[in-house]
Amino acid sequence: MRSVRIGVDTGGTFTDVVAVDEETGEIVTTKTPSTPANPADGFIAGIEKLGELDVAGIVHGTTVATNQLLEDRIAGLGLITTEGFEYILEIGRQSVPDGYGNSYFWVKPSRIVPVHLVKTVGGRLDHQGGEVRPFDETQAVEVARWYRSRGITTLGVCFLHSYANPEHERRMREVLAREFPEAVVSLSSDVLREYREYERAVTTLVDAAVKPGMRAYIANLSSRLGRPFSVMKSNGGVLSAREVVNQPITTVLSGPAAGALGAALIAATAGHRSVITLDGGGTSTDVTVVVDGDPSVTTEGSVGRFPCKIPMIDIVTVGAGGGSIAWISPEGTLKVGPRSAGADPGPICYRRGGTEVTVTDAHVYLRRIPPHLLGGEIPLDYDAARMAVEALADKLDLTPERTAAGILEISAFNQSNAIRQLTVKRGLDVRDFPLVTFGGSGPLLACRLIDILDLPAVIVPPEPGNVSAFGLLTVDVKNDYVRTYVTRDLALNKAAQIFGELESQAADELEREGFDEPVFARSADLRYYGQAYEVRVPAPAGPLDEDWLREVTGRFHDAHEKLYGYAYRDDPRHAVEWVNLRVSGIGPINRPVIRRDPYPKTEPVEASRRVIFDEPHDTPILQRAALEAGAVVHGPAVIEEYGSTIPLHPGFTATVDEYGNVEIRRD
């Protein structure tokens, strides 16, 4: 029996499964509809579809935490903070979202914890961790009993300056354990040990809010699997399920992170080290920029309306998937998304109770996708889609063809706007980056994105619907640690002490994961004195001396100039300020080998159907598995495979490379 590692990515519409043979590198893939009511059902169904295998390991990309935050399902949550700081969430930050210009029309959203559920405890630390006033244990007991009496069972603890000294927070946890043992508690000094109280408080509360749901889900899955497994984290690493339940906030972008890493590896193997990745699913589209083989990482991310100041792959998500619903605004204009039909009931053409036209229905009406999905497992009802599109067209006073094409055009522009957020708005020229598009719906709008953004090419990997699940098998075990140390005069012995403590903490946790020889990656956040935000740069390993100091500050000047167009290398009026020291602890794995010409070949079969692009065309229908390396296809054409479809518009050419990728370019 073959020994395999399995990756399972649970999406909003489908659960994708990839098994990689550890000896031969052979890849087996499958998909099954997701089960939103209990995602574990879809997970188990996907594993069972693979048949009898000797499973060496399972890695899971989950949306449990993500969906809870996106759907704002947060209740029974309390915040314990320092006396006098009960309005920290109410004050927040003085910025308003883009698009409002000024705050007159903007209504501040409700806080993650309303002020009447915020309680304070006496005691005070200074910014260096020194005790100004002792911890008030009597008041802490009163607070614990107050929450217990009201049934508030999920609590975040965020005391002032606990990033410098966690002692008071740990004493609060001891009180809660004694007085209210049923409570689920998150400490800010465990979740995010760096300064900025508002972001630290919200990040801690998000961790607390998703803990009960994640613990229940992981426990359910563990009991049904009967074996250990790992979970993908937002930072581009994995962690065992038994450990990830203690830091569930690290999974809030679990699935999209795996897709970005898998696509980056596939693109780099084919010779494209800097690309944009686009993961088009049934519910949403996730976009990432990869530079020199590595996806961009940020600590300024958010999920829904909640800032999450943890290291995560820099992903922009828009509600533009195959299940995105087309609707008419009060002004009478056509809109698409962000609301989605998801997996249940799904698009109208699924015939499972869907009543609103979706992007998939538009593709079906224009005949750009086959009359079934997943090799026949999901038949699509053309007549149901046709009648629904015609009814929507009547309301818009348009032809059905114009209506369906308009739905796809709006969806393409929604995706292109997400790409612009990560490129144009950050000083990158989108024309310098090929687009790697994957996911079940990712390749469907490839040609339009080339036109809209003037992209050099679009690359569609083999089995695009399973790239995220494949990406789960390409990543190392990884944990991130941070310590705030604000100074303009870095004491090298102090910095060496902090790095040593962080690396010791990383080594202990990786040892529990079975890694005796971990790898450490240092970095630091720096800024010019007086600036509000920092730039992160890698820091060399080894002893800290004057050469090390010059190297890191030099990297900061270079990075600042690249980001903002200027730097103060030799200007003593603008001192460099150190803010955070960071360590990533990495447990390396053996990555699967990407094989040349991965498809088992099939004989070409002549077929065609009438497909509507700008106008109807009698269009050849090609099976991707029948295309040899070096094959060239001229549009119009439709290239079909088990998990996805590539509609090749007139005026475009698709070429198959030696790894089975399809490269689409304008003629």
From TrEMBL:
Domain called Hydantoinase/oxoprolinase N-terminal: residue spans: 5-179
Pfam family, one: Hydantoinase_A
Top-rank taxon, per record: Bacteria
Domain Acetophenone carboxylase-like C-terminal: 494-660
Residue ranges occupied by any Hydantoinase A/oxoprolinase domain in the UniProt entry: 200-480
Protein name: Hydantoinase/oxoprolinase family protein
Cited InterPro entries: ACX-like_C, ATPase_NBD, Hydant_A_N, Hydantoinase_A, Oxoprolinase-like
